[in-house]
Amino acid sequence: MAKLLCCLILISLSGNLAKKFQDDDKPSWAKKDIRDFNDADMERLFDQWEEDEEPLPEDELPEHLRKPPSIDLTKMDMSNPESVLQATKKGQTVMMFVSVANKPSKARTEELTKIWQTSLWSNHIQAERYLIDDDRAIFMFKDGSQAWTAKEYLLEQDELKEVQLESQTYPGKNPDVRNKAVRDEL
């Protein structure tokens, strides 16, 4: 009988504690209709939703919220600015612009950049490729330190005009070469 009485008391108390706010207790932004919420109201609602959530692990955070990797400047060769840049870009996204020689067709640019991307992947360098013009593509590296190794590989390719990486332009080894194979597919 005492257990039943305790259960009834707990149920009645929990009902009082779990009731909704009265309209005068709510903040002004919460009194609005959800369809009238602006971006700031939605952000406050999201923050309120996320209050009791556990923080994400480091590897699941967006790139801008992750802690940058620690860099030991004493072990770096400061006379080589490229190696310093390569070390500071580790773990960050880096984009490289690649131009193909002699204004090829879009199909030829697609073919060449796909071959280059596959060669990079074969060497464990993860690069995403996006065509931005008939003769230009962007290679995006999730680990920016790999971009300098990729640059060295790309500069050895015959039909490469130039590579732009971190505001530096590097000409290809033979930028005036005529495109060897033209495979325009319908």
Secondary structure: number of strands? 5
Widest sheet: strand order? 2-3-1-4-5
Identify the overall geometry: elongated
Q: SSE order in H/E notation? A: HHHEHEEHEE
Low-confidence stretches: none
Account of the protein in words:
The protein has helices spanning 2-17, 39-50, 81-88, 106-122, 146-155, and strands spanning 94-100, 127-131, 136-141, 160-165, 168-171. The chain is α+β, with helices and mostly antiparallel strands. A 5-stranded antiparallel β-sheet has the order 2-3-1-4-5, with helices on one face. Strand 2 (127-131) and strand 3 (136-141) form a beta hairpin.
Brief overview:
This protein has 186 residues and is of the alpha+beta class. The chain has helices at 2-17, 39-50, 81-88, 106-122, 146-155, and strands spanning 94-100, 127-131, 136-141, 160-165, 168-171.
Topology:
Elements: H1 2-17, H2 39-50, H3 81-88, E1 94-100, H4 106-122, E2 127-131, E3 136-141, H5 146-155, E4 160-165, E5 168-171
Antiparallel strand pairs: 1-3, 1-4, 2-3, 4-5
